[in-house]
């Protein structure tokens, strides 16, 4: 059988720096675990614009459609700020998401014990926290028509439309239930069914999908405003949260910050199943290209490493190896290894990006 294929798009800024550490880890898995990937590397974002005049070439797009999984670093940087909107680095990422139809965005918020003091929140609120937010990514108010700024009488009016079809709700709900079965078997769906028609349909369809296909999973519903409050008050009550594009944007950023640095946060964006039964998938750290620290060997590679762990789990069915990698990260943190973004006390000496990568491999 052919090796599983992985397309790596390091991108811009700290993207290539953190990705270099993941490459070392991939080599380790090949050498020590016999887990060999067919890896190819290509350009995205400003790096692609510099060579091809576009932030994502058609050839790269085609490769992404073929790959079992795509792992992306980060795109963008001040050098590209003045470019026309149509060729901005971010458009490369948007094209990937759109053409791969990645409708389910997974953002874990997990607290590593060693960093439980790092957050400004009370330790008992976040210690041991492990939740997953599933955000619908391709529909809703971000895309619904009509949209625009129009003139009505003698004033302007800005219009967006929240629109969800039954099938759009059902597919992201399935993705949340599938995930819950591999975790704590609990889903909380959030909307505003008290004021929004799309919210009423959302609640109905999630419940129907549950009753027909996932009766074994515990399902609850919450209004999103209460959900936001509960997320901050006692986040450990949740396992998987599923919500729409707009609420998911807000709630996942909120959940992410429960646990500390941007340099720690991975994400996955999943689409429909491919011929091998696994979903189309793009994995990337939540952070951006961090131009302020790019090229200095300071970036924390953990978000990118944990994104690869998600790829092991969700695209390559290597849950044990994903656990192995996450445990290594946990151990390194427990040993007090810290990149600069995780420093708490003056006088501590941070490790470099590549020292952090080496420490994870050693662990
Ligand atoms: P973008 O527009 O690409 O999202 P941004 O400036 O909004 O860029 P980031 O690039 O994520 O956001 O950076 C925000 C801040 O977090 C910066 O100060 C950056 O140095 C810091 N940061 C982000 N990622 C990391 C990382 N992996 N390691 C250390 N610091 C990071
Ligand atoms: Mg940003």
From TrEMBL:
How many cofactors are bound and how? Binds 1 Mg(2+) or Mn(2+) ion per subunit.
Any Pfam family the entry gives:
Iso_dh
Every copy of the Isopropylmalate dehydrogenase-like domain together lies at 5-360
Annotated NAD(+) binding lies at 77-90, 288-300
Q: Which GO terms of the molecular function aspect are on file?
A: 3-isopropylmalate dehydrogenase activity
Q: Which cofactor does it need?
A: Mg(2+); Mn(2+)
Which pathway features in its UniProt record?
Amino-acid biosynthesis; L-leucine biosynthesis; L-leucine from 3-methyl-2-oxobutanoate: step 3/4
Known function: Catalyzes the oxidation of 3-carboxy-2-hydroxy-4-methylpentanoate (3-isopropylmalate) to 3-carboxy-4-methyl-2-oxopentanoate. The product decarboxylates to 4-methyl-2 oxopentanoate.
Matches recorded under NCBIfam families: leuB
Name assigned to this protein: 3-isopropylmalate dehydrogenase
């Amino acid at each position: 059988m052919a090796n599983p294929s992985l397309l790596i798009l390091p991108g811009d800024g700290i993207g290539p720096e953190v990705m270099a550490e993941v490459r070392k880890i991939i080599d380790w898995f090949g050498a020590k675990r016999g887990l060999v990937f067919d890896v190819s590397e290509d350009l995205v974002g400003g790096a692609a614009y510099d060579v091809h005049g576009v932030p994502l070439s058609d050839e790269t797009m085609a490769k992404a459609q073929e790959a079992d999984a795509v792992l992306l670093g980060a795109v963008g940087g001040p050098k590209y700020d003045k470019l026309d909107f149509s060729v901005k680095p971010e458009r490369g990422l948007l094209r990937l998401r759109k053409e791969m139809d990645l409708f389910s965005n997974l953002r874990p918020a997990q607290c590593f014990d060693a960093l439980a003091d790092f957050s400004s929140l009370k330790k008992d609120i976040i210690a041991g926290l492990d939740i997953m937010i599933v955000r619908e990514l391709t529909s809703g108010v971000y895309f619904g028509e009509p949209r625009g700024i129009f003139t009505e009488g003698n004033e302007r009016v800005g219009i967006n439309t929240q629109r969800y079809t039954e099938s759009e709700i059902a597919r992201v709900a399935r993705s949340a239930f599938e995930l819950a079965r591999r975790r704590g078997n609990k889903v909380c769906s959030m909307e505003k069914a008290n004021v929004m028609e799309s919210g009423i349909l959302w609640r109905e369809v999630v419940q129907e999908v549950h009753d027909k296909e996932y009766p074994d999973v515990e399902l609850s519903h919450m209004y999103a405003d209460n959900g936001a409050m509960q997320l901050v008050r006692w986040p450990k009550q949740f396992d998987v949260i599923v919500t729409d594009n707009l609420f998911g944007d807000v709630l996942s950023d909120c959940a992410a910050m429960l646990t500390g640095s941007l340099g720690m946060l991975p994400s996955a964006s999943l689409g429909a199943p491919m011929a091998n039964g696994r979903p189309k998938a793009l994995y990337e750290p939540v952070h951006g290209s961090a131009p302020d620290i790019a090229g200095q060997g300071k970036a924390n590679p953990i978000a990118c490493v944990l994104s690869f762990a998600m790829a092991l789990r969700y695209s390559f069915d290597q849950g044990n190896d994903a656990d192995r990698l996450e445990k290594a990260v946990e151990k390194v943190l427990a040993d007090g290894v810290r990149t600069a973004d995780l420093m708490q006390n003056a006088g501590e000496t941070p490790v470099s990006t590549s020292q952090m990568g080496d420490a994870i491999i050693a662990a």
